[in-house]
Design goal:
There is one protein chain. Helix content is 55%, strand content 10%. With 353 residues, the chain is α/β, with parallel strands linked by helices.
Length: 353
């Protein structure tokens, strides 16, 4: 039996908010949301009068506080940890921004979708990006959507939405993540994919107030942080390829033996790639008994295929061995990544850590 949407807490991270925070909370309470958590992310003394008003007008709100600004991701983790402990019967939590750009009706729709799924989906409130969207809200969304499709293997129209229904099963996986800024929201999508949770988009109203001037999103700095999340797998793969090919070239130059050079080069690369891919790229936290056998199986199959193609290119077509090695590994790069993403480091149904 699913939990009613009224049991879904609403979490609002707030850094230097304006009166829209009070209006949002009032509207949520009027709509029947009794569980509201607000995190003051180190807004400073000048904003204390606003939070005092929040306490006085809405005594039922759970108001948490950071002494200094730690970032949106840190505020979300603080609120999610509180919700996990305070509301053990909740199917999850809905996050909403403090600037009034998420309408209470849309928050309710996301909460209802989360409750209907019994906390088995990560629900995303998806905005439409048409005419009139401020440039810094439009900036990079299409690029990040395309890149994230590669990272998580799913097509999403809005990768940076702050209105999300987070299932309770995902929260313990999010709390240890090191990201504390806006990049935490992209890491959340990767963690959901790893845990085998479907990503479900619910269309919401696109609201931008005063050209989105109240947003604390820095187009340059925060975009760089977000794209670093998306490029972690590329960096890891490049370093792995460098180790693999460097060892192969050194050994082949010394011995002229393809198979021995291939095996030793691949073994050296494995030592780095497994740890980096497991923890830094795919955010996997399963025990090695689940991931290591699948990873080694992939390496074994990949080594056989790579060796076979390199040998064929060299002996039949006459391609130089080192050139063949570099070409083959380049072609296998995306295939290896997709298999790691969807088979090696993704939790299967019913699998525990």
């Amino acid at each position: 039996m699913r939990a009613p949407s009224s049991l879904v807490p609403v979490l609002i991270p707030a850094y230097e908010p304006d009166g829209a925070l009070l209006s949002t909370v009032a509207a949520l309470e009027a709509a029947g949301h009794a569980r509201i958590v607000v995190v003051n992310d180190g807004s400073g003394p000048s904003f204390e009068p606003l939070f005092d008003q929040l306490r006085q007008r809405h005594p039922g709100v759970h108001l948490l506080r950071h002494s200094v600004n730690l970032g949106k991701g840190a505020a979300l983790k603080t609120g999610l940890n509180h919700i996990l402990n305070k509301f053990p019967d909740a199917p999850g939590a809905v996050t909403a921004d403090a600037d009034g750009q998420h309408l209470p009706a849309d928050i309710a729709r996301v909460a209802e979708a989360l409750a209907q799924s019994a906390g088995s989906n990560l629900v995303l409130g998806a905005r439409s990006f048409g005419n009139g969207v401020p440039w810094r809200s439009l900036f990079g969304n299409r690029i990040s959507a395309a890149l994230l499709r590669l990272v998580v293997g799913e097509r999403l129209s809005d990768t940076q939405t702050g209105l999300r229904g987070i299932p309770v099963s995902l929260i313990p996986q999010l709390l240890p993540l090191p990201a504390n800024g806006y990049e935490f929201e992209l890491d959340m999508l990767i963690a959901a994919h790893h845990n085998g949770l479907p990503l479900v988009e619910v269309p919401i109203t696109t609201v931008y107030l005063n050209g989105n001037q109240s947003s604390h999103f820095n187009p340059l700095l925060d975009s760089m942080r977000i794209y670093f999340v998306l490029f972690r797998f590329t960096l890891t793969s490049l370093i792995t390829a460098l180790i693999d090919n460097a060892v192969f070239i050194l050994l082949y130059t010394a011995s002229s033996h393809i198979l021995t050079s291939q095996i030793i080069g691949r073994a050296a690369a494995i030592l780095f790639n497994y740890t980096a891919a497991r923890r830094a790229v795919f955010l996997a936290r399963d025990g090695h008994r689940h991931t290591l056998p699948r990873f080694l199986a992939l390496v074994g199959v990949n080594t056989v295929i790579s060796y076979g193609i390199i040998t064929w290119l060299h002996t039949v077509i006459g391609v130089r061995v080192i050139v063949a090695k570099l070409c083959v590994e380049g072609v296998l790069f995306l295939a290896n990544f997709a298999i790691q993403r969807d088979f090696v480091f993704t939790r299967k149904a019913g699998q525990t850590s």
